[in-house]
Each structure stands twice: as C-alpha cells, then as structure tokens.
Structures
1.
Amino acid sequence: MAAPGQQRLVVVSVSPQSRASLAAHFELNPADTARKLTAFFKKIGVHRVFDTSFSRNFSLLESQREFVQRFRGQADSAQALPVLTSVCPGWVCYAEKTHGSFLVPHLSSARSPQQVMGSLVKDFFAQQQHLTPDRIYHVTVMPCYDKKLEASRPDFFSQEYQTRDVDCVITTGEVLKLLEEEGVSLSDLEPAPLDSLCSSVSAQEPSSHRGGGSGGYLEHVFQHAARELFGIHVDKVTYRPLRNKDFQEVTLEKEGRVVLHFAAAYGFRNIQNLVQKIKRGRCPYHYVEVMACPTGCLNGGGQLKDPSTPRKELLQRVETLYSSVRTQAPEDAPGVRELYRAWLQGEGSERAGRLLHTSYHAVEKASSGLGIRW
C-alpha cells in the first residue's frame, strides 16, 4: 500500500473493447487476454487492474432509471425527450460546441463507464484502502482518443483533493506500444488472477453485457422501459435498419400503437441527420444511442489496426471475440446491489446522483486550434 508522501497506488481500468482488440491482435481469447494484461501491468509496477464492465453495470442501471423518469415527466418538459446517450465523448463535444443550448438538455446525465470507474476507484476503492483520492493514480485503457478529453473535463476534477477521477487515459494502440517498448508479447506472459473491486466478489473471468459493442445502452434501456412503463417483457430486441446499418430503429407496440420508439445512430452523417430531425421538431424517437464512430466503439480511433488484414475482416474478428464473453444483466452482477447499499446509500440517493451522474454545458466555439473547449 502507498505510504503517505511516497509512491501512489497505481490502478489500471481496462475497457472490454480494448481487451477484444488486443485479443484479436494476439490471437487469444478474451479471458486469457484479461489475465495476461493483468500480469503485464503488474510486471511494470501497477498495483490493481480492474475491468470497466463492472462500472458499466452502474452506468446502464442509472440510464434505465433516468429514461423512465424522463418519459413519465415528458408532459412537464418539452426537452425531456428524446434522451440522447452521453457515453461517447466525441459526440458530447460536438453536441456542446455545435448545438449547445439546444441539445444539452437532451443528453443523458448518467456517467460513462470510464467516469463511473473514476468514482469507484477514487471514492469507494480509496476508502477501502484507507487512502485519500490523491494517493491513487488511476489509468484507463480505452478504444478512443476522445476519452482523454472526457477525463480532463472540470466536472471530473476534485477541488478538495486536487485530483482527477481518471488521471491518465491510454488507448489500445498505446498499450501495444508499451508492450513493444518493454519487449513483451502478451501471448508469452503467464496469466495472473483478475482483480475485483469488491472484496466479497472474486473475479474468475471477464463478463460483459448484451446489446452490441458500444455498451448495449439501447437494449438495456428499451427492455427495462418496456417492463417498467408498459408491463411488457421483451426477450429479444429486433432492429430495423433504415438508410444504412449504422442507423437502426426499435419499436414497442401495445394494442396496435407504437408506445416506445428507440434508435441507434452511429457516425457523424447519421448524427447530423438526427440533429436536423430534432431541430425541426420531427424526431419520432424517445431514446437514441449515439456514437461518433461508424459501427461504434469496437471501431474506435484508438483500436489496433492491421495493414495485412482488411478493415471489415478485422472488425468482424474483434466483434466475435467481444461477443464471446459471458453476459449478465447489470442488476444481477455480483457486488452491484451491495455497493448501491453500502457505498451509495441506496438507489436514487443524493450520493448516487453525485457520483454516478454529471452535467453538460453549452460551449462557445474556440477561436483557434482544434476548437475543442471543455
């Protein structure tokens, strides 16, 4: 454990998308990749290695609750719907900068898995280790360069302890560079046991969520809303592609009437079409899963490329590996209910609101450089 005034305790949190990309590159299965990655990070001095699938449980559950609340309150607010996901920082940056005051009220306030993990590590885990948040250095491994921007938002900085929830973000590609610099091939490493955030839960193998490579927000929120609002159990979500495979719709009908209308919009061409629909007051959707990258997070800009393999073929391999991991409903994940009770003081508490949600801000365009201002 880190001694006061000396070294900090170093934690690395790995995204399931990065794990799948590395698994494809090294021709490993996701479980072996997770264990060997844990071994590598510990070899270079990391103390704990966690999986952001665990923090995604909280992000999904909070997204479900928020949608139901906003759906029920739509009569009181014209801006309650559609709810637009906010887990993609490239999309959030575009929304805040380009259509700020118009789109920001529609953004979901639920934190992304990366930023929920920031709360878990710097609040819950720090308490368990009897450390202040600034005594932990938290690194995440992500499929996306824009996650660096997300981590640097002032909303995720503690003034009291002068520390960020996530101190450093490295992409999947940067992990490969790190391996190469250390002269290590992931395949050759002896696997190490996986770490668990919850002392009462042993992490035997990685887990994930159904609903695609971007986290499954549409599916989880749709199935929860169908059950909670209309008493309908949806076992399988059926997508209907529209103008292209990156713009798809899902509907729920009751007594011949469409009562829920969801969509997934990936890539900026589809995002721009969606924004125009909202601006014209012609958006039929209650909820939209929005991602800046075509085909979503598994195709993120920080993922591994292979010049010898066609892009589509490589992406298919990554998708297959990603979906081979055992899935579970977020409410059933070991440790989740326990942490809601013991750490967050219950579902819907003030503490849960503070640690699992955030707010977004209309931003004026910067006058020079990239034009990104957070």
2.
Amino acid sequence: MSAAEISMKPPNTTLSPYTLVVEQTALKEVTKRSTDSVSDSQYWRYDVSQKRHKSGAGEGNKLCFKFIYSGSCPRGEKCNFQHDSDAREQYSGGVCIDFLIKGKCERGPDCNFKHDLQNEGESHSRTRRRSESDSGNRSKVCWFCLSSPNVESHLIISVGEFYYCALPKGPLVQDHVLVIPIEHAPSTLTLSQQSNSELVKFQNSLKLYYKNRGKEAVLFEWISKRSSHANIQVVPVPSSRAAAVRDICNMAAEKLGFKFVAMKFNNSSDGREWLRKQFDRNYSFFYVELTEGTILSHSVEENENFPAQFGREVLAGLLNMPERADWRNCALGKDEETKMAEEFKKQFEELDPNQ
C-alpha cells in the first residue's frame, strides 16, 4: 500500500495508539535521555529472525509505544523510535500513555490515568494509593468484569460464585467458550484453591458437553505480564482431529524456537496444581490442556517473541480455517450473538454446574 492509503482514516474511527505523533513541548521533561528505538510493524507470527532487546538506537523525538507500554520492543536496535526509560517510568506511575506519546488525550475526563508528569518523589509516594485504586478503576473499563458497563452481558451463559462462562466475541468455531474469573485477576493460577474447584467443575462439564457431540475440548490460557483480567479459552475440535493438536502445537513451538514442557495427568485438579508450581509471576506464561489429559506449558522469557494469539492461531491452522485466527474476522452482530448464547444455554442446561 502507498503511504497515503496507509494513513487514510476510515469513518467512525478513534485515534490509534500506534499513531506516534509527538508534541515536543509536552514531552520536553520526558524525553531527556537518548535511548533505544523500535519500529512497530506486523510480521508473521512464527518468524523469529527478529530478536527483542531492551534498548535501541532511535533518533528524533518520537517515542516507541511498545517500549513505553511493555518495557521491551520486538524491533530492538532496528527501531526508528526512542526507548525512553523516563517515559516508561511515568507510564508505570499512572500517567496516560496517549499524553506521553502525543502530548494530549482525546478521552479527556473519561480517562482513568493522569494527564500531568510526576516528579521523581511523587512516583513513589503515590504508588500505594494508585495500586489501591487501580483495581476499581480498571474494572470500570474491563470487558470481563461483571460490574463493568462494557461487559457483553448477552454473551454470558452461566455464572458461579468464582467463575462465569461466556461466548467470546468472534468465536473461532461454534460453541467456543470462555471461562472467566469474577475477580479482576490477571491469571487463574493465582486464585484460591476454593475457586479452583469451581473452575474444574466448569471444565469437566464443558468436556462432557463436547464429547456428547462428537468433539473434544482443548483449553488454553495466555498469561501476559501485562494481563489485566484472565480468561481460559475452551475450543471444541472434532474427535478425529484431537490427536493432532499436540503435534501441531509442538511444530509451532519449534518454529518459534522453544520446546513445551509436557506432563500428563489423570484429572484436571492435579494438572492445575502442577501448573501453579510451574508458573512464575515474573514471566509471561502459556499453557494448553490437551484432550488426553496432557498439559503443555511454556514460561516466556523477557526478550522472547511469543504471539499472544498462539493458541487460537494453532487451532485455526489445525481446523483449516486460518482466516479465522483473528477474532475480528469472525465478529457477529449482537442479535446473532444473543441467539447463539441462548441456544448454548438451552443445550448446556443439564450439564451446567450452576443449575
């Protein structure tokens, strides 16, 4: 595409966070250091020729969105934008990322973040107060918090004490389900043992539901260090293809340059207890539970290039529907979503552990 076509703004859109337009006057205090830079580009998920670095060699005053948001960048020293540690610290201290990058925020009073730069001492003194209020503020804008005005309540199919089930936006296949903790937590592996018992009941019910329809359940969770609200994706695959899931996962892992840790269990409870021990909060983590009880897990290193949609992409490839790897290609209208959810609730009612 030409530069003009790329920059053309479709109607009814909001400003992209990747639009790296910097107003120098607003960023004068932030961009003190000359740091690394990053180019934010789309690349094939399993191309691992590019390695991440914590610093780059960007020139000019434009800041790298990736570095400010996550502290790292997939383009490393080839990035064309600055990796400004001061801006990263300001963002970690609760300053709006749009304000840092563009010098302004179009959300105005609806934004839950600060629109002024903090002094060095303020960052530490406000940390505790910010952490206490973060959960409440984020739950107001979180798609998965039941108390949030943004929750898609028409997709909910069952609600328990600690977890609820819902159909996803843009399902990969029919009967694709999300199991979501009611608590605003970044991982299901850090929640209480009591809540874990309810989760296992949900999982076992869904497995039986699929088995009655000639399918097997594949469960996976991506736990990013930047995750806000956890969710486990449960995807039914035809029984005839279930045995191939492990092979295609291993093949995709090999292309990315890592190997899964594999362990087989007789029940989900034992498997989750093992996962709790494997999980380190200091790293991102991915695991998938296969149909025969085997769990594949991988702890993602700081500079490792791991696609957030790994699980969905692998299953889309297995089912010969690569065009559905992106959920946005599968989005449905609200009326159709509501109809699907009501139909699923009706069929799942006898197995629903909350009935």
3.
Amino acid sequence: MPQGEKNYDPQFTQHVIDTCGPNTSPRMKTIFAAAMKHLHNFAREIDLTPEEWLAGVQFFNETGKIWAESEGKRNEMHRLSDIVGLESLVTEIANYVQTDNPDYSPTSAAILGPFWSPNAPWRTLGDSIIQDPHEGTVTYMHGIIRDLKTQKPIPNVTFDMWQASSNGKYDFQDPDSQSDNNLRGKYKTDENGEYKLYCLRPTAYSLPQDGPSWQLLQALDRHPMRPAHIHLMVTHDDYKPVITQIYPKDDPWLATDTVFAVKDDLVVDFVPIKDTPAGMSEHKGPGGRATRELQLDITLAPKGMAAHSGPKL
C-alpha cells in the first residue's frame, strides 16, 4: 500500500451492491451499482466526516420539506439538479442524434425546467399568449418547422410555449398579478409548417434566494441568475420532440447561466418591427402593439434517427 493511502475495506462497496435481490431489474442494478461505486469513492476520496455526512442528510431533508410545504408548487430537488448541471447533461444524452451531414442538425434541446404545465390552452395561429398587464416588450414571433432530412415544412406540429412575465415570475408563482395560463399557449403549424403568435421579449430572473439551492449557490460563490428565455416544446407523432429554450443575444447572463442550459443555436435576435406583419391583426392586448420581431425556425429529426433510447428500469 503506498505511503499515506488509507486501508479502507476494499470489499465493502461490492458487498453493498451484491445485496440486491434476484428480482432487481438489470437496468436498476446497473444504476445502483454505478451510483454506489461513485458515491463510496467520493466519500473515501475526501475522507467525508460524520459531521459533513449529517449536514448532507439535513440538506436533503430540507429539500423535501420545501416540496411538501409548497404543496408541490416548488420542486427544490429539480432545481438542485439544474444548478449542478445534471438536467442539462441528461437532456444532452437523451436527445443525441447522429446525422450524416454535419451541416444539418436538429434544433438543440435544453432543460424542461419545473414550470411546464399540461394545461396550457390551445390558441389560434396569430393569437397572443399575453393575458395580463406587464412592463415588457410585445413581440411578434414566427417561423417554420422543418424536417431534418428533407428540409421540407412539417404541418400539424404542436408548438407549446411558456415564459415568465416581465417581473420574472410564472403565472402560478404570481396569482396576484397573473391569471391562469398567462404567457402560455399551444399552437398547430399550418399547411406550410408555419407558426405565428404574439408574446413578450423575455426577462432575466433570479432563482429563489432561499432554501437549499440558494445555500449551495452561496457556498460555491455563484450567482442565481437565469438569462432571459422562452420555453418551447415542439412535438409531432413522426418526429423526435424538441424541448428547448431560446435566449436574447444581448443577455448578460448567457455565459454563466446558473443551470447551464444555453447553447449557441438557441441564442436569437429580437429585432425592431415597424408595421403589423402581413396576415396578422395588430396586437390589441396588454402592452399594445408589437415593437419587436423574432423569426425562429425549428428543425425536427424523424424518430428513426434517434440514436439513444434509455433502457427500462
């Protein structure tokens, strides 16, 4: 044994793994074995003390307590997995697609985050998702959704989007100022693969500055800011879904997004707009007419191109 190396029981971790019963599924055993090897090696590598272990136990207890006390509205464990980059890594693994032509690739995926809702209303093409007063900038957003292989437009795609208001809060976080489903909506692309709507130019916001996630950010001397973004979930029965976010190119937090979700092709430009776009009615909801425009085309990969599909537990 090299000088200074501690002679911890070399068989202990394998013994823990070997206690799995015969009804453990192969995938579950693979996950458990890998997790235990990394976790036990981590404890050995840093000589984890009993006091540090108990602090970790309390940390995760507090994480669960927030979920319970908020009646499921604040998913603190989800947020923790985001600020350590785990959800972004899992998203990359799950959405990897091998393409023959490096010039063509599907729109990059980004994390779902904790604020998606299955109850977003269906809206008509050209309608606004803005229901309530705000201090933001009304934006005309439009684009075409195309097939990765053929580059042809795809009709009847579901384009689901949601965003925070100009105060940095989503509808259910802000019941005093926002109605249900404010800044949420689902659309279907037309026969030309096109979607079009009114939304807000997004606003950067801070993650909550309390609870375990904030404690961890403080311990790591990191800021809690997310760059301004709009969430998208783009789906069609014949294509691999794209769950992603888009970001204004001038946002100051792009390089240090606290959840590591920014990718180059998701950084976009909200340009000034002078006139009401052809085929659109002028925006007459909260905030008045649109003063910015965003053209965002999306590329979907046919389901047969998906190169990774996780095994069942």
4.
Amino acid sequence: MPFLGQDWRSPGWRWIKTEDGWKRCEPCSSELEDENNKLNNISHTIILNDGEDIYSAEDCEFASKKRKKDHFRNNAKSQCFYREKWIYVHKESTKERHGYCTLGEAFNRLDFSSAIQDIRRFNYVVKLLQLIAKSQLTSLSGAAQKNYFSILDKIVRKVLEDQYNPRLIKDLLQDLSSTLCNLIRSVGKSVLVGNIDIWICRLETILLWQQQLSNLQMTKQVNNGLTLSDLPLHMLNNILYRFSDGWDIITLGQVTPTLYMLSEDRQLWKKLCQYHFTEKQFCRHLILSEKGLIDWKLMYFALQKYYPIKEQYGDTLHFCRHCSILFWKDYHLALLLKDTGHPCTANDPDSCFMPVSPQHFIDLFKF
C-alpha cells in the first residue's frame, strides 16, 4: 500500500485561526539575492595570504560559466526555512522523538532573519555567526550553510544601509574568508558541502562585501538641535563609562577634541580592565608608562589577546531547563500577556530560564 500522508512522527502543520476559519501556515522561504552583475567586477582568482592560488584559471573559467547559467540556482525553488521562536533541544532518541537536534537544524528553524532587524539582538547574531565561521562551518548541513550566507547577506545589506557597527561585520567577514581559505588549502575541497564552484562564488561574494564595507562613507547628520558637543563634561564622561568595549571608546574619542581628552582618562581604562579581567591577570601582564605608572589602556588591549572579555548583549536566546526548549523571549508580550516565549509547563517559568551566550548556543549541540 503506498504511503500518501506525512510521517506520523512529524510535528504536523501549524494552523492559525482567522475570520474565515482555520488556515495552514506555510513555511517562509529564504532566497539568496542574485549578484552576478556585481561579481563580474571581482577577480575570479582567490589568493591566499602566502600568495598561493586556491584555484587554477580553468576552475575559475568554469565557475564563471556556471554562474551565468544558475548562480546558486536562483531560478529554481529555493530551500525553505521555518521561522520559529522556540525549538525543543533533544539530545537522545525516545519513542516519541527519533534523532537529535543538531546545530544546523537549530540554526535553520530559529528566526535569525527577523532577529537581525532588532537592534538588541543584532550584535548577538553577528557574534554567533562569527563563532560558527571560526570552528563550526563544516558541521552545518548544505541547507544550513545556504541559510547562513543568506542571513549574512541581509546583515551586510543592513550595515550598508544603516551604517550600524561596520567594524563588527568586517571582523566577521575576515574570519570567514580565512576559515574558507584554510579549509580549502589544508583540509581539502571534499570537506565542504556542495559543488566547488558554489564556494568560489561565495568567496568572491565575501570579497565584494569587504570592498563595499571598506568604501563605506558615513553620512553626516544635519541637525540644528542639540548635539553631542553641547552636553556638559560630566554627561559626556558618564557616556564613556557606559561602554564595555575599548574600541567603542576610541571611536567616540575621535569625534571631538573634548571627547578625545575624556577617552584618554586613566581611571576610565582602569575601570574597563577591572570589569573584564581579574587582579591575578593584571599581575601577569603589567605594562608601565614612561612615568612609571600603569598604562591601563595598553593593559586592556594586551589582556584582550590572552583572556576573553565579558560579553554584553541587549537580548539573547534563552534556554528553559524545565522544558529543554531554546527560544527568543519577547519582553513586550511577557509584560502584557504574561507570555513566556514558549509553552512552558513549570509552575514558576521565570526561575527556569537562563540566557544563552553565543558560545553556549554552540555547546548545546555538541554530543
């Protein structure tokens, strides 16, 4: 007898109630944009740091012809990705559930595309993509890798339009391009999922993004009202003390001479070092100035090379220890409707929630 329906073990369709009755929710499709015209201006030969060519001219010529035919198969039906606010993290097979929740599955199902539009979650998603680029890129499935580059494309477009935190994206693209070059040179082409010409296109796209970000010009805001320079010194000083990243302090100090003077304050950098590092770590890497005093600014950047700094995010994913569910918490719904962000069965749901850092997100799926 032929099997005509869905697998009985599947979670089934999602339905919403409307005025016309119940309607089925269709999964959202995530399509990669066609950038053939832009990529034609980029050289088809990707060069390693030591000057070695990854691909020969014949490979690049073949990739160019292939790109003209179907770049990333844009004309075909693209891979569909669910946009869910929570997923169940199961690490073993049961009678009700078969298999495991992998990193690629979680990355596909959780709604990262909408998360990058939220300024509270933007840095969190970028940091997660950077960690995946450094060590977990090969563990993603082909669909997850395609979704990865789709989200990365949206991030780059947002930065080019809004000019929000381009330094963070530059670091991400640098790590991603270095990882791809090392994988192809040291490990071999077989470790990468998909046809090799697809990865040539992706490397060229990364190079294009890096060029666009390098040529990014910050638009000058025309405002006849109150500006940052009009604030009193104690308020400007309080703003600087709110930063947890030394590069943000240096960037703000380049705006005006007054801000530069405040950004060089020894007490400011001392507080920053004390926030991120311990006293034992100070003693191992003491740096003295010409006057014999501790140079806290140089200390901060020196310690940063040896020890991780504390991460701060406006919003993160949360994990429910009671339900083993990973979810985005909507604070507006939580306040208005007492919505926990997922169907929690605990008597006191808030006591079961724990924020999930980008590294913790990756560690959840290591078996």
